[in-house]
Design goal:
globular
């Protein structure tokens, strides 16, 4: 694993990765038990463990942040934080589609000099997007506050810092992954989230913790982590960058369906808590956030899989096509399946005990919703690795179609479910949407594989 920011062994020569099946089939042990052991101990597995640690740091920080807030603020304030956190995922949907996923897909196989030109141009697009969306949040938050909305207004206003600093830190973290530098990504995540938690603990001890403060902590932690990341990635920036129009056209051609799918996914899944806040109350959204926090380890695995797998799958697809992707997909489901199902089973079976231990009596009355939450996250597991592989193969239109259908379901059955069952209806609606996406994506994969 390279640690010197001026070198990158993955791009010094145009050689296929060592885990491409066509290349290493002669070296794989014939003994099936040894092959299974290699699956969990090989170089790809070791890098995957680092990616899991990286996402584990983020997921643990999210879990602890929610726990600190839930113990120190009202359900309404927790709801403000939850809705703001969900808004970050909308911004990330555009970032993923038009900036990060194209960077992962196109940048991973590039030679060093070509990558520098492309990465610098993409970085300028990222900075422009971050500044624009931060300005929009500050403006509309200020307007809402002036109109007398003291709950949503300040929360929206202070999202400017998140939209600016968090986005830039996330972009730099994903640059590490594109060039195979997972160790630096882990360090950067630790720095950002440690600073974030320190802010929360200090503010809680001073009695200054609010939902808005919880969002501010994310922004300032990201800003602290940006400083060393800029230095470590300095070799990737050049004055002779690719024409911005060319970069934008390349990213748009590939990423428009990814972005559409990500936005549709946000609307069909992530937007449910926002609807809950609007149709019921911010306190209900806070209860949803408290329940979701119990399955935080699943975010660890699914996000780590997407972050780590996208550039790796892209490289393998370039060299070995669908044969490599099919094998990689089977491995991925095998590796993460046991911990995912084990975690969901624990959360569903011992929901009363876990809720009581974490939050006291505040959210205990919502324990019945954990069965639906576990079912919802099981469906996320059913399609998340597949979605990553489809992006690597540049089959992105089905992702958009699947989430568009789920979006339609949300504004029909989903709204009815929220009105009828409140927080439980929110989770049930999300589960329905995840089921729709699962069916559409697997049907698309089977069709694509049969043609190759």
């Amino acid at each position: 694993m390279p640690v010197d920011p001026t070198s990158d062994s993955l791009t010094e020569a145009k050689i296929p990765p060592t885990d491409v099946p066509v290349q290493d089939s002669a070296r794989r042990p014939a003994n099936p038990f040894k092959r299974l052991a290699l699956l969990y101990t090989g170089k790809a597995a070791q890098e995957g463990y680092l990616a899991a640690i990286d996402q584990g740091v983020i997921s643990l920080a999210n879990f602890l942040a929610t726990l600190i807030l839930a113990r120190n603020v009202t359900p309404t304030e927790l709801g403000v934080y939850g809705v703001g956190f969900t808004s970050l995922r909308l911004v990330r949907a555009v970032q993923e589609g038009l900036i990060i996923q194209p960077l992962n897909t196109f940048g991973a196989p590039m030679e060093e000099e070509e990558f520098r030109r492309y990465a610098t141009s993409t970085s300028l697009i990222q900075v422009g997007y971050s500044l624009a969306i931060a300005a929009v949040a500050a403006l509309f938050g200020w307007v809402l506050t002036r109109l007398g909305n003291d709950t949503a207004g300040p929360g929206l206003f202070w999202l400017w810092a998140n939209f600016l600093w968090w986005q830039l830190q996330e972009y730099l973290r994903r640059v590490y992954y594109t060039r195979g530098r997972v160790q630096e990504a882990v360090f950067n995540s630790i720095l950002a989230n440690l600073a974030r938690l320190i802010f929360l603990v200090v503010w809680a001890s001073q009695g200054k913790l609010t939902g808005v403060a919880g969002l501010q902590a994310i922004a300032w932690g990201s800003l602290i982590a940006i400083i060393p990341a800029l230095w470590q990635t300095r070799s990737y920036w050049t004055r002779h960058f690719e024409n911005l129009r060319i970069t934008w056209g390349r990213n748009w051609h590939f990423g428009r369906w990814v972005m559409g799918g990500q936005i549709a996914s946000w609307l069909s899944v992530e937007f449910y808590p926002v609807l809950t806040a609007g149709m019921i109350s911010f306190a209900a959204a806070g209860a949803y956030r408290a329940l979701q926090n119990l399955v935080a380890p699943i975010h660890l695995l699914l996000r780590a899989t997407d972050t780590f797998l996208t550039p790796r799958a892209s490289r393998q697809y370039q060299f070995a096509g669908f044969v490599a992707l099919n094998r990689l997909l089977r491995r991925t489901y095998l590796v993460i399946g046991i911990p995912v199902l084990f975690s969901l089973g624990l959360a569903a079976i011992f929901s009363n005990e876990i809720l009581s231990a974490l939050y006291g009596e505040t959210y205990l009355s919502y324990s019945q919703g954990m069965a639906w939450m576990a079912f919802f996250y099981a469906l996320l597991y059913a399609y998340s690795p597949l979605q990553t592989v489809l992006k690597a193969a540049q089959i992105t239109r089905p992702i958009f179609v699947a989430n568009a259908l789920a979006f339609l379901a949300m504004f029909t059955i989903g709204l009815w479910a929220i009105q009828r069952w409140g927080v439980y209806g929110t989770i049930a609606g999300q589960a329905l949407n995840a089921l729709i996406v699962t069916i559409v994506l697997w049907a698309a994969w089977i069709r694509a594989r049969s043609k190759h």
